[in-house]
Structure formats: structure tokens, C-alpha cells
Amino acid sequence: MNKLDSTLDDVQNTRFSNIYHDLVKQMAKTTQFSEIEVQSILLVYHKFVLANGPKAKTMTKKQFNNLFLVLFKIYDLQIIERILSLITSDLNKDVVPVAWVKLFSVFMANKLEQKMKFTFQIYNAANTGYLTRDVVTFAVEKFFTGEDEDEVNELRSDMLEVLFKKFDTDRDGAISYEEYAVVVTKEPMLLEFLGQCFPNVDGMTVIAYCTNILSKINFPKSSIDDK
Predict the structure, then answer these.
(1) Which CATH class is domain 7-108+199-217?
(2) How far is residue 122's CA from residue 119's CA, in Å, rounded to a whole number?
(3) Between 37 and 167, where is the model more confident?
(4) What architecture does CATH give domain 111-197?
């Protein structure tokens, strides 16, 4: 038989095909990925599952969190939890394969609008449709730490005012998605203005090579050739 993955034996290759055959076709229709690309993404997922023992069927939340902390270099546990809540229906359960593919569908999206909507949803944990001053203050507090409490508080206060001056264009004391989108469309580097939500270049390059879909990553060629 033709092996899907040479690192897996014949039994595991057959098992993978039996488990994910229908899902591969389904996700290829609902994401930007081809069937081969979905298959490659799910092969990585399948190897996480195999690490949990012969009877395991899903990736654990601990594995998911460690992936963000170690590979993606995203250290804010609340942001990781919010990301998980956006791709899965039950935070109390393990990470299912559909959620795994959804995650990479967003991470590898080339459309800024898709990334903006996802990022704003992460920040807007209360699902109110806007970011209040309290929400922004809480995020900004993580940006500055130190022994000089007065200096830290001053830096936080200054940053808070800068952000609201930048994003709260109607001066109503809250940042709507529309206001956020207008600013980020003009200045994409402000996409993650309240904390990192996407893997850095190194993390995304590793993902791309592991899943064999480097063409989906919209990075400057030099950033890959230098690896």
C-alpha cells in the first residue's frame, strides 16, 4: 500500500485513513485547504493523539497549551484559553480534529479581515462587540512590570491613553470592531495590539514544513531561506 506518512507503520497509516477519510473531504470543502493539505494537517494531529496511548482518540488540552507555549511562543494563558474557546464547542473536553483544522485555517489565512475578526473575538472575551476601558486596562497591565510601582503605573496609564486615542475614534470610551478594523487595515502591525494571538515567523515556518503546506504561509521568502 502507499503510505501516507513513512514515519507510521502500515497499521497506523490504515487507521488514519479509516478515521479521517470523511473529515478530510469535509474540511477541504469548508476551508482554504485542499484534501492533501487537510490530510497533512491531520497527520500532525494524529501523532499527538498517538502520544496519548493506543486507545486515545483526541489531543489533550495540555498538549494544546504546550504547543502554544513551546512552539508558538504565546505565553498568555488567557489568550490561549480564548483561542481554544473559539475553535471548540466545549472547553472541558479534549481538542477534536475539526477544531485543529479550524485553528490552522485561521493561522494560515492570507486575508487580513479573517485574522482581524478572530483577534478581536479573542480580546472581546465577554462577547459584547466592543472593548471596554477595563478590558484594555487589564491587557495593558501585562505589558509593563517592574519593581518601581509608580513608574510601571505611569507607563500603563500612558499606554492606555495612547491606545484609546488611536482606536476609540468616536470617543465613547469603548473600542468597537469597526473602529479596530479601520485602524488595523491601515496599519496591519497593530493587529495584535492587546497581546500576541498568532505564532511568530519561526513557529509558522515550522508548522508549514511539518504539514507540507509552506505555500499557504504569506512570509517574505528571505525569512524562510535563512532557516
Answers:
(1) mainly alpha
(2) 5
(3) 167
(4) Orthogonal Bundle (1.10)
